[in-house]
Amino acid sequence: MKTIIELRNVHKNYGKIEALKGISLSINEGEIYGIVGPNGSGKTTLLRIICGLIKPTRGEVRVLGLNPYVYFDETRRYIGYLPEEADTYDLLSGFEHLHLYAKLYNLNTEDIKYGVELAALDNRIYDLTRGYSKGMKRRLLLALVLMRKPKVALLDEPTAGLDVHTSLKIRRAIKKYVKETGASVIISSHNMLEIEEVCDRVGLIFKGKIVAEGTVEELLRKYSARNLEEVFETVTGEVS
Ligand SMILES: Nc1ncnc2c1ncn2[C@@H]1O[C@H](COP(=O)(O)OP(=O)(O)OP(=O)(O)O)[C@@H](O)[C@H]1O
Ligand SMILES: [Mg+2]
Questions:
Q1: Per-residue model confidence as pLDDT tens digits over 40-85
Q2: Is-contact 32 187, C-beta < 8 A?
Q3: Residue of the nearest CA to atom 7 in ligand 1?
Q4: Which residue's CA lies nearest to atom 25 of ligand 1?
C-alpha cells in the first residue's frame, strides 16, 4: 500500500504549551483515518501541520513525499482542507460559491455538477447562504473542498454541532468520495462513536500524544471494550 502522509516524531510548542509531543503517523492511499480526542488534545494543530500552515517545532512531515511547510504551493494543490471555523459568504448563494471556487481552481462544469451533488442542498443551493442552517453551510463547505478532487482531504470536525441526519449525510458523502477517487482522508472529531463508523483506522490523541491506534475492531479487542469511549477511558485513565 502506498503511504501518502507520513509524520515522524512531530512536536509543536506554542510558547510554553506543548501542543504535540512526538506524533508519528502513516496514512495510506484510499484510507479514512480518524483522529479522535478531547478538546485541546492537539487535533487542529496536527491538521494544520499536515496542511503546511504551521511549522512543527521538531520532527518530519511528508505529504506525497514533500514537506508541506516548505513546498506549500505544490502540496496545497493536492490537499483539501476544511478548517474547524470555516464560514461562507453571506451574500452569495451556494451555487455561486461553487462557481467562484471553480474559477479559482480552474474547474469545469462537470466539477461544479459534482459539487452540487456533494452539497445535496436541492433547490436551496440557489439561496443566499446567509439563510442557511449550520448543517447546510457545513455541507456546502465540504463540497467546496471535495469538488476539486484533492488526493488528501483534511477535515477538521466536519460534523461538529450537526444533527444525526445531517451528520450521516456528510459521512456518506466522505465515504463515497474516497470510494470514487481513492483519496486519503483525515477526519478529526471528539465524537468517538461517530468516528467508529466512518474511519478505516483511528488514532486516539490525548494531551498531544497518540495513545492508541488501530482499526476499531483491533482497539475494541485489545482493550476488551464495547466502544471507542471505553477504549479511551482505559488508555487514559480518564472518563471521557
Ligand atoms: N495559536 C495558538 N497559540 C497558543 N496555543 C495554542 C494555539 N493553538 C492551539 N494552542 C494550544 O494547543 C493545544 C492544542 O490545541 P488544538 O486546537 O490543536 O486542540 P484540538 O484538539 O483541536 O481542540 P478542540 O477539540 O477544542 O478543537 C491547546 O492547549 C491549545 O490551547
Ligand atoms: Mg480543534
A1: 999 999 999 999 999 999 999 999 999 999 999 999 999 999 999 8
A2: yes
A3: 14
A4: 39
